[in-house]
Amino acid sequence: MPMTDTEIEERLVALGLTLPQAAAPVAAYVPVVIAGGLAHVSGQLPFIDDKLVTGRLGEDVSLELGTAAAQACGLMILAQLKAALGSLSRVERVVKLGGFVNSSSNFTDQPKVVNGASELMVTVFGETGKHARSAVGVPVLPLGAAVEVDAIVAVRTD
Question: What gap in Å lies between CA 55 and CA 144, rounded to an integer?
Answer without folding.
Answer: 6
